[in-house]
Amino acid sequence: MSQPRPLHEWHEDIGDVLWWLWPIEQAPWVGSPTDIGRTVSFDITIQIGVDVYEVQPQRAGDTGGWPWVDADDETLARLFWTPLPDGAGIDEAIRDHIRGGPDPFKDTAPASMDDTSRSAFDAVVQGLSIPQRDLLGRLTVEPGTRPEELRFTYPVRSRGLGLQSCGVFVRRKMAVGGTDQPTQRATRGYVRLTPFGDQIRRHLTRKAN
């Protein structure tokens, strides 16, 4: 949570923020003290029975501008602001919701490991052959699947070679076997990684970039 800051710490370079009047009894106001509202007016027509009366247009005053333009010092002393939410982060969260999961092509920060887990992880990575590393780097999410399913596909370069690598992945708990056993067709291969295998895939992708 962002630390609320008093009014006097705001300056024009900060721009729009959320303004909170303490004690908080209503939603925050969004904007800046430099916002200028506009005066609006409206016509009023009153009908009583069959009689219609037109009233002189009324001015509603300024709207949309800084709400505390006429506030006293005591009120301004209770006014605090916090930064606006991260729009990019919210946009990404909405995209994740629409696609049904996180972007499979975006590298996320690896989960923290203790020394023993890190050593085991490094040992598995170092034990991978060049073709196996190459295959992990060529994996793309299988069309029509959800990212969290970790189902990947790859173009076949040498028939059978990809399946050999996938067999190693299964034995090392990097890929799923059984009913999800890696398969290969004429031009495409298919494999479902485990979370451990996907972590290694992401690790190698980050190193390659």
Describe the overall structure.
This protein is an alpha+beta fold and about 210 residues long. It has two domains: about 5-85, no CATH class; about 115-209. Helices cover about 30% and strands about 25% of the residues. The protein has helices at about 75, 85-100, 115-125, 130-140, 160-170, 195-209, and strands at about 5, 15-20, 30, 40-50, 50-65, 80, 140, 150-155, 185, 190. A hairpin with a 7-residue loop joins strand 2 and strand 3. The protein is elongated.
Largest sheet: 4 strands, antiparallel
> How many distinct domains?
2
**Which sequence of SSEs, written as H and E, runs from N to C?**
EEEEEHEHHHEEHEEH
Structural class by SSE content: alpha+beta
Strand content of the residues, in percent? Answer: 15-25%
Helix count?
6
Shape estimate: elongated
Radius of gyration: 30 Å
Oligomeric state: single chain
How far apart are the termini?
33 Å
The number of distinct β-strands equals 10
Task: Report a brief summary of the structure.
The chain is of the alpha+beta class and 209 residues long. It has 6 helices and 10 strands. The longest helix is centred in the last third of the chain and has 14 residues.
